[in-house]
Design goal:
binds pyridoxal-5'-phosphate, 10 helices, 13% strand, seven-stranded mixed sheet, alpha/beta, Aspartate Aminotransferase, domain 2, 13 strands, globular, Aspartate Aminotransferase, domain 1
Length: 356
C-alpha cells in the first residue's frame, strides 16, 4: 500500500438511482418530473448571451434570490440559493451541525443524510420510524446536535402534519431543525410560515422535482437571516461561484410561470392517485403518498423480483436493499402513458408468477 493512502479521506458515497443511457426506457426511479420545465425556460435558454460566459456569475445570486423571496412572500435576507438542495443540505450540515451531541434523523429517510454526517464527522442517531413508517415525535425530545426531517419523507412518501413538526421545532430551540421539503408541492402544508416564529428552523426546497429542473441544479433554503448569513459565510469559504449563470437565468424563468407550475402539479397528483388505486387492485399495499412517487409492497411477489423483471422490460423503478424496506419498490409518477405501460408490465409479471 502506498504511504499516501493512509492520509486519504475514506468515505462511503451516496448512490443515486441509475441514469440509463438508452432512450427507450421508462424511467420511474429518481423522482424526476415527467413534464418539461415551463415554456419560458426554453425561450430564455435560446436567448442566453453566451458572450457573458467569460465573466464570473453573481456570487450572491441576487436576482434569483429576489424572485424566490417574492414568490414565497419572505425577505431576501431569509433565502439562500445553492446547486440543488443536495448542495444546500450539505452546506447546512457543515454550518449548523458542530455539536458533540448526535444529530437526529429517522432510520428510514433520504439516504444522503448519513453520508454527509459521515463525511463531516458529525455524530448521529437514527430513531426508528414506527411500524407504519410514521415519525414518533417523542424520539426528537432528547438533547441533540440538530435534527433533519424530510417532509414528505423519502422513500416512504408519507407526510407529517405541521403541528407535529412544530412540536419538534419548539422543543429544540437550542439546535437547528432542518425540514427538507423536496416534495411539499405535491401534498401537505409547508412549515415555511414558522420561520418567522422560530429562529432555529431551516426549510429546504428544490427545483428538481416539482419544477422539472433536476438537470439545472437549483435548491434553496429559507429561514431566519442569522441562519442564512451563517450559511452564506460557510459557502463563501468553500466556493464563491456555485451557481452558474445559465442556472440563475433559467431558475428565474421557472418561477415566473405559476400557471404552468400548478397545472403540472395537478397532472402528477391526478396520475398518482389513479395509479395508487390501480396498484391496490392488483394486490399492492401502497402508502398514502403526498409526493410524486409511490412506495408499494406486493402481497405475494417479492419487491426485488418485481424490480428486476420491470428492469428487463426497460422500466426502471427504485429498489432499496435495506432493513425494513427491502420488500418495497419506489415508483416515480410518470406521464399517464408511462404509467399505463408500467401497470401493464406488472400485470404480465403477476401472471407469469401466478402460473408457477
Ligand atoms: C431529490 C431530493 C433531494 C435533492 O434534490 P436536488 O435538489 O436535486 O439536489 C433532497 N432531499 C430529498 C428528500 C430528495 O428526495
Amino acid at each position: 500500500m502506498s504511504e499516501w493512502m493512509k492520509n486519504v479521506r475514506k468515505t462511503e458515497p451516496y448512490i443515486p438511482g441509475e441514469q440509463p443511457k438508452a432512450d427507450n426506457v421508462i424511467k420511474l426511479n429518481t423522482n424526476e418530473n415527467p413534464y418539461p420545465p415551463a415554456p419560458g425556460v426554453k425561450k430564455a435558454c435560446r436567448e442566453i448571451n453566451t458572450d457573458k460566459f467569460r465573466l464570473y456569475p453573481d456570487p450572491d445570486v441576487t436576482e434569483l434570490t429576489a424572485v424566490i423571496a417574492d414568490y414565497y412572500g419572505v425577505n431576501e435576507s431569509e433565502v439562500f440559493v445553492g446547486v440543488g438542495s443536495d448542495d444546500v443540505l450539505a452546506m447546512s450540515f457543515l454550518t449548523f451541525f458542530n455539536s458533540d451531541k448526535p444529530i437526529l434523523f429517522p432510520d428510514i429517510t433520504y439516504s444522503f443524510y448519513d453520508v454527509w454526517a459521515e463525511l463531516f464527522g458529525i455524530p448521529y442517531k437514527r430513531p426508528a420510524l414506527k411500524d407504519d413508517f410514521r415519525i414518533d415525535i417523542n424520539d426528537y425530545m432528547e438533547p441533540n446536535g440538530g435534527i433533519v426531517i424530510a417532509n414528505p419523507n423519502a422513500p416512504t412518501s408519507l407526510y407529517e402534519p405541521v403541528s407535529d413538526i412544530e412540536k419538534i421545532i419548539a422543543k429544540n430551540s437550542s439546535s437547528v431543525v432542518i425540514v427538507d421539503e423536496a416534495y411539499i408541492d405535491f401534498g401537505g402544508e409547508s412549515v415555511l410560515p414558522l420561520i418567522h416564529r422560530y429562529d432555529n428552523l431551516l426549510v429546504v426546497r428544490t427545483f428538481s422535482k416539482s419544477r422539472s429542473m433536476a438537470g439545472i441544479r437549483i435548491g434553496f433554503a429559507m429561514g431566519n437571516p442569522l441562519l442564512i448569513n451563517a450559511l452564506k459565510d460557510v459557502k463563501s469559504s468553500f466556493n464563491s461561484y456555485t451557481m452558474n449563470m445559465p442556472a440563475i437565468i433559467l431558475g428565474i424563468e421557472a418561477v415566473k410561470d405559476d400557471v404552468y407550475f400548478k397545472n403540472t402539479l395537478e397532472k402528477i397528483i391526478n396520475t398518482r392517485n389513479r395509479v395508487k388505486a390501480e396498484l391496490e387492485e392488483i394486490g399492492f399495499m401502497v402508502l398514502d403518498s403526498c409526493s410524486n412517487f409511490l412506495f408499494a409492497s406486493h402481497e405475494n411477489i417479492p419487491a426485488r423480483v418485481i424490480f428486476e423483471k420491470l428492469r428487463s422490460e426497460n422500466i426502471y423503478v427504485r429498489y432499496f436493499d435495506k432493513p425494513r424496506i427491502d420488500n418495497y419498490i419506489r415508483i416515480t409518477v410518470g406521464t399517464d402513458s408511462e404509467m399505463d405501460a408500467f401497470i401493464e408490465a406488472l400485470k404480465k409479471i403477476k401472471k407469469s408468477v401466478d402460473i408457477c
